[in-house]
Specification:
Blueprint: H1 3-11, H2 15-43, E1 54-59, E2 67-68, H3 71-76, E3 81-89, E4 93-94, E5 104-107, H4 109-112, E6 120-124, H5 126-131, E7 135-139, H6 140-145, E8 153-157, E9 164-174, E10 182-185, H7 186-192, E11 198-199, E12 201-206, H8 212-222, E13 230-234, H9 235-243, H10 249-277, H11 280-288, H12 293-325, H13 336-339, H14 351-378, H15 381-386
Parallel strand pairs: 5-10, 7-9
Antiparallel strand pairs: 1-12, 1-13, 2-11, 3-5, 3-12, 4-8, 6-9, 7-10, 8-9
Helix pairs in contact: 1-12, 2-10, 2-12, 2-14, 10-14, 12-14
């Protein structure tokens, strides 16, 4: 019998207990990986290289307060501004859906083209989108999800705005961090609102990363002490401002993760202590045969480490397979997109998160074996032989 087979035989002596231990570690590691992924998705919004040049200006009072359209000409004269477009969130409902998880934005098509540098047109024509005021630019993910095609009509029912409209799909884009949204003409929204003359926010593109901070300061200064002061920030900062509405997400998910790990340590340590206590007589016999304490401690550590790492591998691999490989956007009725109202379309388990889960599982195997090893080392051969099976 080899040392590996000896450790495996002891670990699987009570197969029910071993299976429950492995499953406990697997479920806990899967939960830990899910929590870490949730924290990453909430605190680190996806971004592209081009996003470092993009800036968003909104009303300083509230995001719900619109800005006068006449600000456009003032912003485009600011040094360092390459392009600017109105960017108004419509937030309508598509078809008869109770809640549509993808956004619709009113933009200036000609100006907006220079703002989505990373996006490429895969179907239709962007020029057609520019020419036809009753058309739209739609993301590939939404097109595929609803099995639409170029030329189909999309009907939206207003929620924030008291207007409904129908637009034709003129072009399809792909390659951005979020290929779900719909962009339509801001002039169409302005006409439907009876010559509204307002915009929700301004979407800017700077000439280079070096002038971004200067552009932000200049835009804020331009409208300071006016009836419509603005708050200007980078695209990433704007995204993170939504996350701040949830409070301290890192603290919350971190605290829950610590509770999960601590509970898992208690369960694993208790299981290992029970398994070793049942084998005190066998360990005493091994001591009497000449095995050193460090060798017996190695057997215990190997057994604990094997159970923990096996459970960790199952849990981490299962979480990765579920979140990364399964199309959760169309999984049954409780889709991730519906549960989060479209706020979290992606849930990527990264290699770094998987490595963190693996380290936790490995440390767990070591920590769970400490007390059984100490107890075994302090127990003499005579005391061990007196122990009942």
């Amino acid at each position: 019998m080899t040392l590996a087979s000896f450790v495996a035989k002891n670990a699987l002596r009570n197969r029910r207990r071993a299976l429950l231990t492995i499953l406990s570690v697997a479920i806990s590691c899967a939960l830990l990986v899910t929590l870490l992924t949730l924290q990453r998705e909430l605190t680190t919004p996806p971004e592209s290289e081009a996003s470092s040049l993009r800036i968003i200006a909104r009303n300083k009072v509230s995001l719900m307060q619109p800005l006068p359209y006449k600000q456009l000409t003032q912003i485009e004269r600011i040094p360092g501004v390459k392009q600017v477009s109105p960017f108004t969130y419509f937030g309508g409902k598509f078809r008869d859906e109770e809640a549509t998880g993808w956004a619709q934005f009113a933009v200036d098509p000609a100006r907006f083209r220079q703002l989505i540098i990373e996006g490429r047109i895969t179907d239709g024509s962007y020029e057609d989108f520019i020419r036809d005021r009753n058309s739209c630019l739609l993301g590939r993910d939404t097109l595929d999800r609803y099995q639409l095609k170029v030329g189909d009509k999309l009907k939206f029912t207003g929620t924030f705005y008291p207007v409904d409209f129908e637009v034709r799909i003129a072009a399809v884009y792909q390659g951005t961090v979020d290929d779900r949204n719909c962009f339509f003409h801001h002039k169409l929204l302005d006409e439907l609102m009876g010559g509204w003359g307002m915009a929700g926010t301004w979407y800017l593109c700077a000439d280079s990363p070096a002038v971004v901070n200067d552009v932000i300061n200049r835009v804020d200064a331009t409208f300071a002490n006016t009836s419509a002061e603005v708050r200007t920030e980078t695209e990433r900062a704007f995204q993170l401002s939504f996350v701040s509405m949830f409070g301290n997400v890192k603290l919350l998910t971190g605290a829950i993760s610590l509770v999960v790990v601590f509970t898992l340590i208690l369960v694993s340590a208790s299981t290992m202590s029970m398994a070793i206590r049942e084998r005190f007589r066998e360990l005493a016999v091994l001591k009497a045969l000449g095995f050193q304490r460090r060798e017996l401690a190695g057997f215990i550590l190997a057994e604990s480490f094997a159970l923990s790492t096996l459970g960790g591998a199952l849990g981490i691999g299962g979480a990765w397979a579920f979140w990364n490989q399964m199309d959760v956007l169309t999984f049954g009725h409780l889709t991730l997109q519906k549960l989060t109202k479209g706020f979290m379309p992606y849930f990527e388990v990264t290699p770094r998160i998987m490595a963190t889960g693996a380290i936790v599982a490995a440390v767990l195997g070591i920590v769970a074996a400490i007390m059984p090893m100490i107890t075994m080392s302090r127990t003499s051969v005579v005391e061990g032989l007196k122990t009942l099976d």
